[in-house]
Amino acid sequence: MSRPDAAASTALGEQFIRPVIFVYMDFLGDPVRANNSGQTVVITASAIPDLNGTYDGVTADFGEVSPVKVSDGGSNTVTCKLSGIVELDADTMNLLNDQSKWKGRIVRIWRLIRDQANIDRGQFQHFYTGYMVDVTFGGTSEMSWIEVSVENYLVAFSRPSNRSYMEQTIFDPGDKSPLATIASINGKTKKSDGAAGYVPGYNYGNSVTSGGGGHYNPDVKVV
Asked: Percentage of the chain with pLDDT > 70?
């Protein structure tokens, strides 16, 4: 998210401002562009290729973008919802039902500050970039809606791997400690070759001394 430039910052200090949100969604073969000013806006001279195009004007009654909250680990999931659709035709349904045409494809959001006279103040500000992860739709026989869920690239690096120490052999085939750990938990600190739970190549020690409800292994050092 970029900061407002000098002209936009001045407008932000005035009593009345009107930020306009521009959304670009890269549906394969049928990209969607919309803004919430209620007026169709055509952008042609931008050095940013994705920004150029015709943005259909909608109002808050029909178009909604959820708040964008950004932290060190990325942002929350952002939703873009378009309501008041008279009918989801066959072409639209085919597009939404084909994940290859939208899943993982880019979404960009820009903001433009306008003053009380509805005059642009400053340049387009990059507000958010993410990727489509889910599309839902529904409604009634009279009106329908479509909602797109978007997540940014940092999510891929912040999700847990769900790996555990017991998968150590995946990375080091010679490491038998996960199996030895299981054997220890089961009270199997000494095994003979071929016995159930025996771990080939693992030194179980030459003697086992019981005591205190546990097992003592002289080959295991506690540090």
From this structure: 60
The pTM (predicted TM-score) of the whole model is 0.60
Report the alpha-carbon distance of residue 193 to residue 176 in Å, rounded: 15
**Which of 43, 167, 144 has the alpha carbon at shortest distance from 89?**
144
DSSP 8-class letter at 132:
E
Beta strands in the chain, from DSSP E residues, in sequence order: 17-25, 32-35, 41-43, 53-57, 63-65, 70-71, 74-75, 78-85, 106-115, 120-139, 144-151, 209-211, 214-216
Decide if 221 is inside a domain: no
Domain membership of residue 24 (yes or no) is yes
Token pair 């009918």 in the structure block, residue: 87
Q: What is the mean pLDDT of residues 17-40?
A: 90
Domain count within the chain: 2
Neighbours of 171 (CB within 10 A): 8
Q: What single-letter DSSP state applies at residue 101?
A: G
Which residue range is the domain that position 210 belongs to? 165-216
| Segment among 88-92, 113-117, 192-196 with least mean pLDDT | 192-196
